[in-house]
Amino acid sequence: MPLGHIMRLDLERIALEYVVPCLHDIGFCYLDNFLGEVVGDCVLERVKRMHRDGELADGQLAGPSRGVAKRHLRGDQIKWIGGTEEGCEAINFLLTLIDRLVMYCGSRLGKYYVKERSKAMVACYPGNGTGYVRHVDNPNGDGRCITCIYYLNKNWDSKLHGGILRIFPEGKSYVADVEPIFDRLLFFWSDRRNPHEVQPSYATRQVAYLILYAMTVWYFDAEERAEAKKKFRNLT
Fold first, then answer.
1. Which pairing describes strands 57-58 and 77-81: parallel, antiparallel, or unpaired?
2. pLDDT of the chain along its 236 residues, tens only?
3. How far is Cα 236 from Cα 232, in angstroms, rounded to an integer?
4. What SS3 class is residue 2?
5. What region holds the Fe2OG dioxygenase domain (predicted)?
């Protein structure tokens, strides 16, 4: 059986038997060993090179403080990429697989109809106590319905290094802690059902300069996205 066909069947099964039920039942889910060591390493090395070459800039705040960098609230450095840039073949492959997973979820995402997504946001937290305070990705109906984060951190020990993504599911008595380990892919609803924070990441005596790397994409509900664009046009 051709490799592509096996991949298609596996992704469809994962989408229908795991991703969809988890999103509806608890609002989030994650997949480990998504790309495998070899391809995951290629993504990691490209992201490291972006960071080394100074291509990442301080993340900006949205809302009333839109366009303002406040390191005590949001300490990441980011770069937006489409995946078709030179040297980004592994990243493009990753994005293609995530797109397929979401496509296989199809009409089973409740009211949502996904036709497009954002570019990928490559992010790093430089390990000096930087994090991202509790927030909601889409509090005001901008169209984002699913947040997807791919983690790139080898030998990561959250007890020592921090960097946990903590989700506060709406109406639940518990929190969910997701460790940012290498080759882990996380999905969760982008709206007010899932306030979340990135807890501070730290260097240790053994690792003087520790960096947390992640890549995020957002998938848009077609109707909400169109309405948000219409409102923006009317305002401007």
1. antiparallel
2. 345 555 666 999 999 999 999 999 999 999 999 999 999 999 999 999 999 999 998 866 555 545 444 545 657 799 999 999 999 999 999 999 999 999 999 999 999 999 999 999 999 987 667 788 999 999 999 999 999 999 999 999 999 888 999 999 998 899 999 999 999 999 999 999 999 999 988 765 555 457 899 999 999 999 999 999 998 888 76
3. 6
4. coil
5. 116-221
C-alpha 23/C-alpha 104 separation (Å) is 14
The residue type at 107: S
Host domain of residue 91: 2-235
- For residues 142 and 230, give the distance between their C-alpha atoms in angstroms, rounded to a whole number: 11
Integer Cα distance of 131 and 75 in angstroms: 5
What is the identity of the amino acid at 194? N
Strand (E) or helix (H) holding 198: strand 196-198
For residue 63, the 8-state DSSP code is G
Q: Are 34 and 7 in contact (CB under 8 A)?
A: no
Amino acid present at 24: H
**What CATH number did the domain enclosing 189 receive?**
2.60.120.620
Q: Measuring CA to CA, how many Å separate 214 from each of 4, 10, 29, 234?
A: 26, 24, 16, 35
Distances in whole angstroms, Cα of residue 233 to Cα of each of 225, 227, 228, 236: 12, 10, 9, 5
Determine the Cα–Cα distance for residues 162 and 142; give it in Å rounded to an integer.
30
Prediction pTM value? 0.89
